[in-house]
Amino acid sequence: MKFIASGKVKDIYDLDDGTILFKFSNRVSAYDVKFKEDIPQKGKVLCKFAEFWFNELPVINHFVKRQSDTEIIVKKMKMLPIECVVRGYFYGSLVSRWKKGEVTLPKGTDTTLAAKLLEPIFDPTTKSEHDIPIDKQKALEMNLVTEEQYMWLEKTSIDIYNIMSKIVEKTGFILADLKLEFGMLNGKITLGDSIGPDEYRLWPKDGYRIGKTQEAYDKQILRDWLTEHGYQKQFDDARDAGKEPVAPTIPSEIIQKMTHRYVTAYERVTGHIL
Question: Which has fewest Cβ within 10 Å: 129, 144, 177, 267?
Fold first, then answer.
């Protein structure tokens, strides 16, 4: 077993047999900043959620098996250099980008915070240290994917979002948005990486109110705390000045709330006890 890399939340090892091991940690990051504090149980939730979604979705994927409470084995493949984001609600970075005129929405779209979009939209980004939103034209200009691949990714990503939305809705949640990654395996585009609360926003249906910040059952809790206390702006200012942002200490109550909600989301959506 050979160590390959350490990502924001998981460590990756090559098993030398055409497969890779993902070891999920309790680490947390937000706004592309890594924090020193761990979120207890997070790695376990991410690992078991990945197993659940890969088994649940009717899409070719790279999942082989779950090795332990925090490890899965997946097939090795060449990843496509594009993150496939699907948005179902007017929320997150979509709001600020729309206000700046950086993104166009269909006529008739309700631009009240957290309003449901007329249809889910495909809103991909580059895969880099700081993801940059792109459209079809940009993706083709940058040679990230072919036009045929882009069209397939758009349709499949939206299909997956719709399937997952129906599943979580039955358990009392709303899937606000979703990030997927794909790669090439045996000449076919294949769903890869991982799927869990670090890759989507999950809101409780009974607390959903248009026009306000939603109750989050994902790492949005941390993002909201950072924004509320001015840290997001500090991160942006530091990057603009060519400096590396400094992560603040996450309060214990935020850590406890994140653990509770990660576990609650897993148990409600999957029907399994963590």
Answer: 129
What residue has token string 């076919």?
Answer: 188
CA–CA distance, 17 with 175 (Å, rounded to integer): 36
Spatial separation of the C-alpha atoms in residues 136 and 158, rounded to whole Å: 15
**Residue 22, strand partner residues:** 12, 72
**Number of residues assigned to the chain:** 274
> Is domain 78-242 annotated with CATH 3.30.230.10?
no
In degrees rounded to 5, what are phi and psi of residue 195?
-130, 120
Taking the domains of the chain in order of start, what are their residue ranges? Answer: 2-75, 78-242
What's the number of CA atoms in the CB half-sphere (13 Å) around residue 84? 28
**154 CB neighbour count, 10 Å cutoff:** 17
Written as one string, the DSSP assignment of 182-227 is EEEETTEEEE-S--STTSEEEEEGGG--TTSPPP-SSTHHHHHHHH
Q: Do domains 2-75 and 78-242 have the same CATH topology?
A: no
Phi/psi of residue 105, nearest 5 degrees: -110, 155
DSSP 57-83: SSS-B-EEEEEETTEEEEE--EEPSEE
Do the beta carbons of residue 205 and residue 169 sit within 8 Å?
yes
Q: How far apart are CA 199 and CA 196, in angstroms?
A: 5
The first and second tokens of residue 137, run together, are 């034209």
Kindly state the DSSP code that residue 232 receives in the 8-state scheme. Answer: H
pTM: 0.94
Q: Which residue has the tokens 């979703």?
A: 178
Quote the DSSP letter at residue 268: H
pLDDT along the chain (274 residues), means of 10: 93 96 96 94 98 97 98 97 98 96 96 98 89 94 97 98 98 98 97 96 97 92 95 95 96 97 98 96
CA-wise closest residue to 72 among 40, 105, 47? 47
Instruction: Look up residue 214 and give its two tokens.
Output: 């939603």
